[in-house]
Structures are given as structure tokens and as C-alpha cells.
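Batch job 17 of 40 flagged for manual review because the log was empty.
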Amino acid sequence: MPPKKKTKLTRPQAAAAADEEADPAVVEQLDDNVIAIIFGCFPPEDTMRMRCVCKKWREAAKTTIVPMADFGVNSVVKYNAMRVMTTALPNLQQITICRLGNGHKYSDGEDPDEEMATAFAHFTTHDINIISNFRKLHRLNIDGAFMNGRYPALFNFPLLEMLRISLCCNFKWELEMLSGFPSLRELDVECNRSLRGNIGSLKVV
């Protein structure tokens, strides 16, 4: 007897299946690709919870294309969640990086402002470069994040279409760094006094 062909669900069908109370035995028989499609119908926070069910679901989450739902990193708790997501849910497509709260900052980048680095040396630091693991990122919003220096790793997302950097006074970058975004279509820059570069570099947009 020839093997049965695997059933492929469309995204709407997967969402409908997820809304029903599933028989555990039936769920266990689902193909990993089908589970990944189902997960792709939910925001990242929900998928992170569902992946804890079993090893099969954890592996499916790693291949899930996360929908365009913004994940905002505005606290240490959210930062820790992002850190886990870099390996558990690497296909995140949209993220907003904000301040982490009192007593916390992102680690200094290259060529930091030494006066600022000294003044806040007692703050707990967190590695911002981990977001470079999100290789399918389409939208990146850096809004008022406590950053100091240059962060080349944040300018290397081949699928990025929208970049917004606002209220980041000591975040150093040059317009030439936009070459790391070959798919960029939208750029929004506000209150970036450390921005430098040739205006001709904007032709990449």
C-alpha cells in the first residue's frame, strides 16, 4: 500500500483548526509543517507559550514564520523573552526596542561616549546584538532605547523593509550603514543627533 500523502493546510484552515478543542492523539499525528503553519496564525507571545507543550511543538516553533505582530522590548522581562526567542522563535518579523527601565541599559557599542559610559557604568547591561539572530526581520523600530555607541550588528538584515530610529541621542550610526538593508523601503529618523554620513546614501531606500 503506497504511503499516504501529507495533508497541507492553508493558513485560514490552520487557524480554524487551532480554535477547536483538539484530541491529543490527533494533535500528535500532525506534521511538523502543519503545526508551524498553525503557530503562524498567532502573535509571538502565544506561540512562545504553546511551544512549551512538548518537544515536537518546540521544534515546530523554530520554523514558524511569525506574523507581522509587533513585539515590544520595554522591560527586562520582555528582554529576557526576546533572548529566548532568538533561538526558540528565530523567524520573528517585527520588533520594537525601547528603554528597559531604571538601572538597566543596553551594553555599550563601538566608540561609545566615554562620559556617558562612566556615568552609567553601575547600570545592569544587556546585549542588544542578540537581535541579529532574527534573520527574517522586516520591521525594526528603535525608540528611545538607552544605547551608547555604534552597533554594526543592527545594520545587517537582508529582508528589512522598514527602519525607524527615534530619540536615541547617543546611538551612533552613519547613512552608509543602510547598505546592510538591500530591501529597505521606508526610513524614519527622529532626534538622532549622533547620525552622520552622506545624504547620497539614501538612494538605497
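Reviewer: the log was empty due to a logging misconfiguration, but the result itself is present. Residues 75 and 101 are 6 Å apart (CA to CA). Unflagging and moving on to job 18.
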